[in-house]
Amino acid sequence: MRDVAKEAGVHVSTVSRVLNNQAAAGRITHDTEERIRDVALRLGYRRNTIARALRTGRTLVVGMVVPDVANLYQAGITRGAGDVFYADGYSLILASTDDDPDHAESQVSAMLGVQAEGLMYGVAREDDAVLAGIIDEGIPVVLFNRAANSPGVSAVLPDDRKGTRLAVEHLLSLGHTNIVHVGGPEDVSSSVNRLEAFEEALGVAGLTGSHHFAHRQIEDEGYRVTSDLLEQRPDTTAVLAANDRLALGAIDAIRASGRSCPQDVSVVGFNDMPYSERFSPPLTTIRISQYELGARTARLLLETIADPLRPAETQLVAPELVVRGSTAPAPI
Amino acid sequence: MRDVAKEAGVHVSTVSRVLNNQAAAGRITHDTEERIRDVALRLGYRRNTIARALRTGRTLVVGMVVPDVANLYQAGITRGAGDVFYADGYSLILASTDDDPDHAESQVSAMLGVQAEGLMYGVAREDDAVLAGIIDEGIPVVLFNRAANSPGVSAVLPDDRKGTRLAVEHLLSLGHTNIVHVGGPEDVSSSVNRLEAFEEALGVAGLTGSHHFAHRQIEDEGYRVTSDLLEQRPDTTAVLAANDRLALGAIDAIRASGRSCPQDVSVVGFNDMPYSERFSPPLTTIRISQYELGARTARLLLETIADPLRPAETQLVAPELVVRGSTAPAPI
DNA sequence: CTCCCCTGAACAACCGTTTGTGCAACCCCG
DNA sequence: CGGGGTTGCACAAACGGTTGTTCAGGGGAG
Q: Is the distance from CB of A157 to CB of A316 less than 8 angstroms?
């Protein structure tokens, strides 16, 4: 900037004002302004965001923390969020925690170190110390995917209950009466909501179902839990999984037990992860628009950054039943 | 830091030295050091990376630019890179360009604005103006996935030629003689390499093959190109796609033409994207370890940042043939 | 006992911007 | 022609650290 100022024959403060469009205030001659812009362009000058941030406190950086960047479901969310942030000139810092609170702690610390203006937090647990720390420091944060016991924090969540209801009703309409549930991790809000909605929906129909929790949302766990459930309730004809990856594991387990999907056992997933229509069998699932979820979270975060006193708000993303090949009428 | 200094009864410079582990130089009493660390911990002090960066020029931030974050193949790379950067205390800024140079331009500009110390550049074109700009400014950059006409720049690339040879040999061993190639975008290095290797490998066997280029690496384009090729060469029994997504489109096109895969036409992809073993049919493809590619790129970038004069280097990631259900012996 | 050197910490400049304030020059009017 | 308002820009103090340099005090050697 000094170079630009010298070249244009003005003071750096003048350059600063011009480049910040404060020329409007009638403080600077049109001539001067034009000259400065000219020189800046010619010299290929680019403002040092770091220095500017130091002075203004605005870094135009936001952080996003997810269990695993490589997870397809998260990837769609990242995309939606990225587009929104990009449009507002923000840069996105990304971190994977492997669903490990220690990782989360240090990743978040690094983000706050670079003075991220706000955080999208996608790894919330029911009682989340890391999250509590963020809130304590007064950093704007919006949860997504998972809620937490933290009042005053905005969140964008899938409508777990409605989605689960859609799934159960679909299975019931196919004549299934022996339905089990493969739940997600026990201390994740979605897992709890989905289980509750599962039992409730069955109850309405006068049925009861078994369930087990998976420790992580991965195929192996879906396999393990489903194997257990099938052994425990051999008459099972349908599996509702809390998540598509668990559903894939469930299908594997069903096959490993000598049954076939969907002829013997139907499977419903949750999320509609990319390419689930190409799986074998194509996965019947509850679609949550990942792009929309990411974009809405990002918008909410930007609003919270702009107005920290903004009242917290929880938005639900509407689910949609997508019927494909992994569900069939109950065998007679 | 001022607070910490005051609380510990020392000057801020002393605090700074302690926190930077310069105490080793025998400049500070063990007593003082301990006291300062204590206070810092108690006050929950965290260094302001921004201010530090302003002074030292080291932001501990690197940028990564990819065509699409939501792309599964990229996601694995991101993961590998993220792990390496994380271990070294770096934060990762991510940007999607949609494979659009204008987007790339502004995204890169934003990254340089926050003084990213280096860039992982995954959207290189044969003649890439944006890339040239980066190099001009002397910013350390390492290409991945795609090479460019830019001497002096390190890159980590899939071994396109070897991978393609593996794929062609596989098809030849199955008795295929009418093989077509669905190429990627024409000005992307991998597309060119794969096409050349394709023709060469066929030539060795005394065959020739047709090909067309896709404009983008997406299913729709694979569909379009394959449809054209099938019409042009109805006797085709095998399709080699430059990429898994193109391969998926190819399978769609084969089915749409009334043929079946792999009975009538075999398909080989490239990359081994996540879940390709679960597709219908499971995809025969050339595996490139995405995690390794990302991790190696990241390491190379860190080395280049540490020593900008480091001679450029191109690393190839070894490919591996993964035979699954989308290839079968040539029909008689 | 004096001098010197070493040790341990304080001092202050600097990184590149932003922004409140000061200060000339100019214009207009009486 | 002089005085009060504007206008257009320069000045300088922050922002929160880092780091070369200075400085005081203490211990050891002569």
A: yes
CB B129 within 8 A of CB B109: no
The Cα of A202 is separated from the nearest Cα of chain B by a number of Å equal to 31
Residues 6+ apart with CB under 8 A from A58: A52, A117
Note which residues in 255-274 of chain A have CB less than 8 A from chain B. 274
In whole angstroms, give the CA distance from residue B78 to residue B84: 10
- Whether the Cβ atoms of residue B142 and residue B154 lie closer than 8 Å to each other: yes
Q: Please name the residue whose C-alpha is nearest to the C1' of nucleotide C15.
A: B55
The alpha helices in A137-175, defined as continuous H runs, are: 160-173
- Output the pTM of the full model: 0.92
Q: What does the radius of gyration of chain A's CA atoms come to, in whole angstroms?
A: 25
Residues B159-192 have pLDDT tens digits of: 999 999 999 999 999 999 999 999 999 999 999 9
Let me know how long chain B is: 332
Chain B residue numbers touching A53 (CB-CB < 8 A):
50
Helix axes A72-87, B72-87, angle to 10 degrees: 80
pLDDT in tens, A138-195: 899 999 999 999 889 999 999 999 999 999 999 999 999 999 999 999 999 999 999 9
